[in-house]
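User: quick one - fold this with iron/sulfur cluster bound?
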Amino acid sequence: MKLDLRKSLRLAQAAVTRNVPVYAHFGITHRCDLTCKMCGIWRYGNKKEELEIHEINEMAQRFARLGVVQTSIGGGEPFAYENVEEAAKCFVDAGINLRLLTNAVNVPKERFDKAIAYGVKNFSISLDSLYPARFDYICEFDGAWESAVSNMSYLAQQLHGKGGMLVINCVVSNLNLEELPDMVRFAQEIGFAISFLPIELLANSSDGVKNWEARFIRHRPEMGLSEGPQGQVGERVDRVYETLLRMKKDGAPILNSSPYLESSRVYLKTGRFPADGCDAGSLYFSVSPNGQFTICHRTSHGYKHILDPDFEEYFRSESYALQRKLEAGSCEGCMRACWIDTSSMFRTLQGFMETATLNLRPTGNPPVSAEEALSWARYDAPAPMPEAVG
Ligand SMILES: C[S@@+](CC[C@H](N)C(=O)[O-])C[C@H]1O[C@@H](n2cnc3c(N)ncnc32)[C@H](O)[C@@H]1O
Ligand code: SF4
Ligand code: SF4
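Assistant: Sure. Structure tokens for the protein plus iron/sulfur cluster:
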């Protein structure tokens, strides 16, 4: 992330007060071209609810005035929004670091070219396995692996040395746990960093959990961790996360902070979320496709709309501060790296230093060719592909 003095001051202020919304997520659409096994967002795709470019532009101006340093545009699949490149430009022009989160599977290279020409230098692409068959199974789309990896290598070549950061987003589940160290090596080889997000499984409402995200998660019991040929859940998770922590210490491009990796290890073993509070609505916030402001990805619609004429005044008011505190304070927790790792970054010196080091260090490997990237495909063992349930 390239930082000017103004942005650096905002980050410093956020670190001291934890009350500057330095990060904002905009889910530009719920539409998607895929139907991934663990995700249900695509069911709610509705073009009619989405904002127009001039409204997104107004939103970007507001973000800048509120102090937002980094915005990610996700979804759904952002490239399902016909003008996402123009939408991204609104944020770039407002002086905000912009990241596009995409599955990259059916995205023509010309659309990446256009986004880059508009100033986008940061892309996160989802990849959950080095086994094409396993990834295609997760995405429910034949050829997804090959298409995503060839687009990754294309982006690495276009953006090498231009100051942006390319990231693989990998959802950790029963299907890929033992693959994570190799995923790090692959990311490093192709000029990417990597971020690991433990799978969120549908919470059990009979346990008194609110099930906020039930709409957006598909229940796939076979993706939850279980005992396997590699051992008990605890042993499997410890072995892999100890390796990841060691690799990170040795300089591997793992984006998650060490405190977050430790929390992920506990979550995967016990289902317990981090208990050290959450800064939703103060350090970060989220906006839905229709422009509804929420404090995080778990949509509660009790807040003003981002384009409401009074929004900025409201955001700075005592009543908002109280409302957001009550909501975040009564939440059962989550493991979303974009939110919880932002908290780790500002709550712990270790998290802050690690993120700063990773963001500021010069670009690593020169980009590999698409053939080299594709040669990491694995066919050596049968991929576990249990029957889909439910
Ligand atoms: C919802 S997608 C939106 C952007 C884009 N469509 C993509 O797949 O990268 C953002 C991230 O959420 C992850 N995700 C989806 N369902 C999840 C779940 N149940 N638990 C954890 N992460 C999930 C995806 O794998 C992806 O990396
Ligand atoms: S994870 Fe991304 S690509 Fe997959 S269905 Fe959800 S929104 Fe679409
Ligand atoms: S822990 Fe925070 S970021 Fe996560 S769902 Fe709860 S309020 Fe939102």
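One thing worth noting: The two ends are 41 Å apart (CA to CA).
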